[in-house]
Amino acid sequence: xxxxxxxxxxxxxxxxxxxxxxxxxxxxxxxxxxxxxxxxxxxxxxxxxxxxxxxxxxxxxxxxxxxxxxxxxxxxxxxxxxxxxxxxxxxxxxxxxxxxxxxxxxxxxxxxxxxxxxxxxxxxxxxxxxxxxxxxxxxxxxxxxxxxxxxxxxxxxxxxxxxxxxxxxxxxx
Amino acid sequence: xxxxxxxxxxxxxxxxxxxxxxxxxxxxxxxxxxxxxxxxxxxxxxxxxxxxxxxxxxxxxxxxxxxxxxxxxxxxxxxxxxxxxxxxxxxxxxxxxxxxxxxxxx
Lengths: 173, 106
Fold this sequence. Notes:
CATH topology of chain B: Arc Repressor Mutant, subunit A
Largest sheet of chain B: 2 strands, antiparallel
Distance between the termini of chain A: 16 Å
Oligomer: heterodimer
CATH class of chain B: Mainly Alpha
Number of strands of chain B: 2
Helix content of chain A: 25-40%
Strand order of the largest sheet of chain B: 1-2
Helix content of chain B: 55-70%
Mean pLDDT of chain A: 90
CATH superfamily of chain A: START domain
Number of domains of chain A: 1
CATH architecture of chain B: Orthogonal Bundle
Largest interface: A-B, 34 and 31 residues
CATH topology of chain A: Alpha-D-Glucose-1,6-Bisphosphate, Chain A, domain 4
Low-confidence stretches of chain A: 1-7
Mean pLDDT of chain B: 89
């Protein structure tokens, strides 16, 4: 998608249906061995209790391109496995995005019919226009990856087929 | 009807594409807001939103007494991923950006 101007968004909502159990989806979001296998390949470390720390560590591929060790910092607001996770989410790897401050990210995991789980991701990005461009995938042409829809699509592939598009290697090309 | 069929059917209508365009400009709108931009009855707009919601292209959330409509780009992403190879992604994106720039929309 090319650059869209004058886009004012304060909350982004992404929803995907995955043929997997809610527990499998929860694990894929909260366990580092899973998170490094899809999307940007960030290794997510959660201390899953209110006030607990969150760190998203950059992949080897990202560090090879000069990224620092920590991509995202945060704090758990609510953890209700395998149904709901609310966290502060602060991307710190880019100084300009980091300056916009922390945002709030919510994952809602619900059963939806036979063996299907509905994952809804709500990202409150009030006051973070640069981050908004990044997570909506509008920077994809610049090699920044396709944001949340890209990550979720990759997560679906991994859980349903056992392999992801990116193999956790992040943006290609 | 498959998930893809629902998405294509939902997109094959100018009013529904217009609604998605409005949500792209500003997300999280009420029915009343969306209705005010269309020459159509409230019931007609509701019907179109229902088709978009069934296709997963619009997700609604309650905020107090209001029902807000959000654009969900994921179903389009899934269709995209089915035909677009990860390694040609950037070249395609560069061409799309070039077109936008030459046409003065960038």
